[in-house]
Amino acid sequence: MAPQHCGLSERYAVFLLFLIPQSCSMTQGRGTLGHMSRIFGGMTGNRHRGVAGRAQQVDKMRDFGSMRVDKLLSTFGLATRSRSKQFLKEIGVSLLSDPDKFLTGATRVNPQEVLIGGEPLLIPRPLHIMLNKPVDYICSHEEEPSIYSLIPAEFTWRLPKLASAGRLDRMSSGLLILSQSGPLIHRLISPKHHCERQYRVEVDTPLDIDSQAEKIAFEQGSIAIRDRKTNELVKCMPARLEYIDSTTARVWLNEGRYHQLRRMFQTLGKTVVGIHRESMGVVSLDPNLAPGEWRELSEDELRQLT
Fold this sequence. Notes:
Layout: H1 10-19, H2 33-40, H3 50-61, E1 67-68, H4 69-75, H5 84-90, E2 93-95, E3 108-109, E4 114-116, E5 119-120, E6 128-133, H6 153-157, E7 163-164, E8 172-179, H7 182-189, E9 197-203, H8 213-220, E10 224-226, E11 233-235, E12 240-245, E13 248-253, H9 260-267, E14 272-280, E15 283-284, E16 294-296, H10 299-305
Parallel strand pairs: 8-14
Antiparallel strand pairs: 1-3, 2-4, 4-5, 6-8, 6-16, 7-8, 9-13, 9-14, 10-11, 12-13, 14-15
């Protein structure tokens, strides 16, 4: 029977459910199939693309020519070669002409003639994700517990690899933007693009609110920290600071040096005990995301960031 081109296939939906952590709410963040289908809509044919969109994609895919299935998965950013066997086993790749027969990685196919988990293949759109990072997670693909363990495993198989636009250290929390787009990440982290990052910072001893010593030092750009490569003292860019209470301040940075906030406050005799990133540029952390939850960036948010 021909596949129903109206969203995720049953086989694919079951696989996504398998990937979603058990602790995740099925009505929030990373736990909704509707949300998942919007993300994977860039990978498989669904009703949001329409007939015209599918036809345009087919024309583009003809340019790729015939290739092995495992090569197809890596070319379209669906899975690395090393992950292709698991992808083929759990999701399945078949032909439009024979949808019930799974293909092996060595089978040669034309991209416009295959189904991924029962859905027509489309050229995938890049992933752009907002994550509410919890304390004690690491912004690394190699170290555990990793922030990438908080998102579906399939996302980490795709190419180019998801990367974080500016890291938060293990003991910091808040907004992380993960993207497959190198230019977007560069735009967010490069000081020349002036993408201001807003943080709530808590220190161990009372701030000098009366003299506004911290505010003046930050805004004058008089704080210097050592460069990790040259070990030379380098002045930080001027940054805004406002006091929230006796031990808490809000800070806006236009650069992201290694442990910058901790080291800036340390030069002023304060030890930072908590950092929470609240926004990057015009995009603020979604208040509906609990720590460890994520959602896709909206088209409006992407437009504002780019």
